[in-house]
Amino acid sequence: MRKGRKDARERRERLIAAAVELFGSEGVDVPLEKIAARAGVSRTTLHRNFPDRETIVAVVQQIHLNRVRELVEQWADRDDAFLLAIEMMAERTLNSGGFERLLATRNNPIVHTDVFVSGVSLILTQPLERAKAAGLVRQDFDINHVGILILMVSGGALARSTGPEPLLDVVMRLLKTGLAP
Question: 10 Å Cβ neighbour count for 31?
Answer without folding.
Answer: 12
